[in-house]
Design brief:
The complex is a heterodimer of chains A (178) and B (566).
Chain A lengths: L3 E6 L9 H12 E3 L3 E7 L5 H5 L4 E8 L8 E4 L1 H6 L11 H13 L5 E8 L11 H20 L4 E3 L19
Chain B lengths: L2 E5 L9 E8 L2 E9 L17 H5 L7 H16 L5 H27 L14 H7 L11 H17 L19 H29 L8 E2 L2 E2 L13 H32 L13 E3 L2 E3 L7 E3 L2 E3 L8 E2 L6 H4 L2 E4 L36 E4 L8 H10 L3 H18 L11 H31 L15 E10 L2 E10 L2 E8 L1 H5 L11 H6 L11 H8 L22 E3 L1
Antiparallel strand pairs in B: 1-2, 1-16, 2-3, 4-5, 6-9, 7-8, 9-10, 11-12, 13-14, 14-15
Helix pairs in contact in B: 3-6, 3-7, 3-11, 4-5, 4-6, 5-6, 6-7, 7-10, 7-11, 9-11, 10-11
Classes of the chains: A alpha/beta (178), B alpha+beta (566).
């Protein structure tokens, strides 16, 4: 059985860059996965991402991308494309590390056999705690892509009868937290 | 005639820094450090509950998440004048120690060693000779001929594939690369081993903090770890033993690999003790508190002016008045309105963008000043303050490093030489070696305190209705970090983070005084303006990380440096 890790990455303080953490939490709240499949909001992991490539067969990253396509477009990149299309994938504080971590993991051995990036083209990456409407509309399609990849690699899942709390804490408006 | 070179971006992983240098007769004659994107994340915090701020601030940056969380809770606790339970202090200290070890290992091996180590010379090395070079010097078991042969084979395979992968953007074959193939191989083999050891430190942080990056266990007033030595799901003896085991594995790597490697490379590049001093005013925060009231510390803080170690002044605590009253931020050369230096509690962030102007505004980073002077922060500042003020721990580890460097170099390298590009690398390794020793101590303190029956981890509090001000100070891996908060009726009125890279990457101020990066580049040699490896060595020695100083989205961010010669 393959181990599969679904990781949302991005800065939740920078508008649509928060789509990865948002989706990771949304998926965890709405789906239950079989053994070997995990979902996590990794935030902005930098080189720490390397730790998540070790001992994991399939790594599915969710991130915002700047690929000149219309906002809300969902694009799936595989390992070869992530490393080849470097200039096309948005390179904010953390994303340079996606490529770097893949290269380092290859050099060190023991890295994930398959790495995918589910890229959602962002509309606004300015400071802000909400996703834009075009990115929000793209979420179901992006979730489908994630689930397809999980299924393709032998992972099992089913939709929860009722969703658990997403804990998307950064979206709470000022004054309503705690 | 001077030739202007623009290097943008310069960090290997978090690149939003732009550096411009003018080169005349093979040496830097003028320099500018700028940040290319608007900073204003703090504005998100205004009006929020101060108890939530740390969760937001630790998302400022992908590298320094833990440190912003820590400075934030300390800022609110300072405003409330809270006394923390000892367990909370020790648990936080263990997180900071392990985070620092991870950060320093990664900075040296993965973010800056390749400024000095030429990967493409490795295929020519004799692994047996590499092994015999250090035989008898350490008892590290990762120094066998077999280990070096395997490392060399990896490099050969990468070179033969024609795809350099992680090594695509190095300055291989540059005339400033001086190490023998065997020493290059040694450093690379340890680069690979360092990947494993930095991860152990991350694991220790994750066990205590619940997760890494982005620890979960902080709370204003303490930590949320429940302590019960016999209970699953709490901080129990099993977990404490796991942490100890990880630290026991990392410490020998620091003592027998990291520190000796840095000392050996420093000795072989001893001319780099002559470049890059720059701003020789140093500022460091005390850290690793030993009591709940933050009056005793294992790392000393203070300041030194004009490179004169006998001028050292120690800070008494996190909220030493000399520090809190001495800090201002200026914006004459930064893209903000206003010319008056402002204290961070009164800080304003009102943008006024112009183009990059050599004599005008040219950076999104403000110019922080202490007593009106630019200050260098980072491990070097901390080590110099500790050494100059006679701290026994700092002296022990610094003397050990200087002795080793002097032995390899064949001449005496004294503490004054640390005020340089190479000195910043050496100071970081000294600090790591201190942290590894302190890890054992703070683990012991925690276990002994729990053993006494104390399981408190949280100090209760209430916000007063009036206005209170706090400063949260942390001596982070990149240097002094301070979060300044103003709280009114339990809500944040103002919040300013003055981060280490703001001090170091600072632009000129109203008096025209260069910031530390800028000053450190002056008189650096530049052999080849198209491949300004020497400038990159000096900038990397500071461990730049601009993501928290400001954010940007650079489509070419993969390059080590995009160089444009004007």
């Amino acid at each position: 059985m393959k181990t599969i890790k679904i990781c949302g990455v991005g800065s939740v303080l920078l508008g649509d860059d928060g789509v990865g953490p948002y989706m990771a939490r949304w998926i965890a709240a709405n789906y239950e996965f079989g053994e070997g499949v995990e979902v996590e909001d990794l935030g902005t992991p930098g080189l720490d991402l390397l730790a998540y490539m070790t001992g994991i067969d399939v790594l599915i990253l969710i991130d915002s991308v700047d690929n000149k396509l219309p906002a809300g477009t969902v694009t799936v990149y595989d390992k070869v494309e992530i490393t080849r299309q470097r200039p096309a994938v948005r390179l904010d504080p953390h994303s340079p590390c996606i490529t770097e971590c893949i290269f380092i993991a290859e050099l060190a051995g023991g890295g994930s056999e398959d790495v995918y990036l589910i890229g959602v083209t962002g509309e606004s990456l300015d400071v802000g705690l909400q996703l834009s409407s075009s990115v929000k509309r793209a979420i179901p399609a992006a979730v489908e892509k994630v689930l397809e990849l999980v299924a393709r690699h032998g992972g099992s899942f089913h939709k929860r009868e009722s969703a658990t709390d997403t804990h998307i804490w950064w979206e709470a408006p000022v004054g309503l937290t705690q | 005639m001077a030739k202007r070179i623009t290097i943008d971006p310069i960090s290997r992983i978090e690149g939003h820094l732009r550096v411009d240098v003018e080169v005349e007769n093979g040496s830097v004659s003028n320099s500018w450090s700028s940040c290319t994107m608007w900073r204003g994340i703090e504005n998100i915090l205004k009006g929020r509950d101060p108890r939530d701020a740390w969760a937001f601030t630790q998302r400022f940056c992908g590298v320094c998440t833990t440190v912003h969380a820590m400075a934030s809770v300390r800022s609110v606790e300072d405003a409330l004048k809270l006394e923390l339970p000892l367990n909370a202090q020790y648990i936080r200290n263990l997180i900071l120690i392990n985070h620092g070890l991870h950060d320093h290992i990664v900075h040296f091996y993965h973010l800056s060693a390749l400024d000095f180590v030429d990967i493409l010379k490795i295929p020519a090395a004799d692994p047996a000779k590499t092994s015999s070079l250090i035989e008898g010097l350490t008892n590290w078991d990762g120094n066998s001929k077999k280990v070096f042969k395997e490392a060399q084979d990896k490099v050969k395979a990468v070179a033969a594939s024609g795809q350099l992968g992680i090594f695509t953007n190095g300055y291989w074959g540059h005339p400033a690369m001086k190490l023998s193939p065997e020493v290059n191989l040694l450093a690379f083999a340890h680069y690979m081993q360092a990947l494993e050891y930095q991860r152990k430190s991350v694991q220790a942080v994750a066990i205590l903090g619940g997760k890494s990056p982005h620890i979960q266990n902080l709370t204003v007033g303490g930590v949320s770890n429940a302590i019960n030595l016999d209970s699953m799901g709490t901080l129990n003896m099993d977990r404490l033993v796991m942490i100890k085991k990880l630290m026991d594995e990392v410490k020998p790597f620091i003592d027998q690999v990291y520190l000796p490697d840095v000392c050996a490379i420093a000795a072989m590049y001893a001319d780099w003790f002559n470049y890059g001093a720059g701003v020789t005013n140093y500022l460091a925060a005390p850290d690793l508190p030993l009591d709940g009231k933050n009056t005793k510390f294992d790392l000393v803080g203070g300041y030194i002016m004009d490179g004169n170690l006998s001028s050292v002044h120690r800070f008494e605590g996190f909220r030493d008045k000399v520090f809190t009253e001495g800090v201002t931020e200026e914006t004459k050369h930064a893209y903000y309105k206003g010319e008056t230096p402002l204290h961070p509690w009164k800080g304003e962030t009102d943008p006024e963008f112009t183009d990059w102007q050599a004599d005008g505004k040219y950076s999104w980073v403000k110019a922080p000043r202490f007593q009106g002077r630019p200050m260098q922060v980072g491990p070097l500042a901390q080590v110099l303050v500790g050494y100059a003020s006679g701290d026994p721990l700092t002296r022990k580890h610094t003397d050990k490093a200087l002795d080793l460097i002097s032995t390899v170099a064949g001449r005496r390298i004294g503490v004054e030489k640390l005020q340089s590009t190479m000195g910043r690398h050496v100071a970081r390794a000294i600090r790591a070696s201190m942290l590894a020793e302190l890890g054992e101590k703070h683990w012991q303190l925690l276990v002994e305190n729990i053993g006494k029956g104390d399981t408190a981890t949280f100090a209760p509090f209430e916000f007063p209705s009036g206005e209170i001000e706090g400063v949260g100070v942390h001596e982070a891996p990149r240097g002094l970090l301070s979060h300044w908060s103003v709280i009114k009726g339990g809500k944040l009125e103002n919040y300013q983070a003055v981060v280490p890279s703001t001090w170091n990457a600072s632009p000129r101020d109203a008096k025209g005084q260069h910031g530390p990066y800028e000053a450190s580049l002056l008189h650096n040699p530049i052999a080849d303006p198209v491949r300004p490896l020497e400038a990159i060595r000096t900038i990397h020695s500071f461990d730049p990380c601009m993501a928290c100083a400001c954010h940007t989205f650079t489509p070419e961010g993969q390059a080590v440096a995009q160089v444009k010669v004007l």
